[in-house]
Amino acid sequence: MEELLKQIFDKLLISYGFQEWWPGEGLEIAIGAVLTQQTNWNNVEKALSKLRDADCLSITCLKKISLEKLEQLIKSSGYYKVKAQRLKNLIELLSINSNPSREDLLEVKGIGYETADSILLYLFEKLYFVIDSYTFRIIRRMGIYSGKNYLELQRVFIDNLPKDIQLYKEYHALLVKHAKGCCLKNNPKCDLCPLKDKCIYYTRKTKIFDFSKSNIKG
Asked: What are phi and psi of 124, to 5 degrees?
């Protein structure tokens, strides 16, 4: 498993290069982690831009601003009423605890494992490998893990990768890049995939295609 995960990383890195991701810095990372729930990053960038223009990317402003005004500023991120309250909840924690633990973050209403671990890894540089829907998709197709349990899949990475902050960041970013551009949910671009020689999904797909052709000939 350790060797396979290393090969996946190396192939993705050769194909896409270093991503140097997460977008943003400082508190903006935590805000973005909440806003990106159930939406794409383009919508988050619009919301962050609105917050930036309003000079409201600080704990002081986000504590002071009314919930209604915050909702309008982040409207482009979708589910803005829910996310505004989640931001308020998170900022309340960060205002009294500048270095929260995972347990602290998970106690905040609306903050789950993925959001908490994104904040911990990219903002506080703590060793939590971030798992998202893209990770589940790629790893399932590679035949490594077919379950749906966040902590179980996270353990696969943590147990088989060096304990390296930058590696965790780059690996997660490369998986996101690959899933968005090649390993799509529908109609994946398998012929262009740098992982196809290791991919169970591609192997099965190819066998089915070959079997269909043989039936046509017969």
From this structure: -100, -5
DSSP 191: G
Q: CATH fold of 1-218, please?
A: Endonuclease III; domain 1 (1.10.340)
- The domains of the chain are located at 1-218
Q: What is the DSSP letter of 37?
A: T
> For residue range 124-140, what is the model confidence (pLDDT) as tens digits?
999 999 999 999 999 99
In tens, the pLDDT along 52-82 reads: 999 999 999 999 999 999 999 999 999 999 9
Angle at which helices 80-96 and 27-35 pack, to 10 degrees? 150
Name, in order, each residue with C-beta under 8 angstroms of 176's C-beta and a sequence gap of 6 or more. 19, 21, 132, 134
pTM (2 decimals)? Answer: 0.91
Sign of CA dihedral 151, 156, 200, 15: positive
CB 123 within 8 Å of CB 116: no
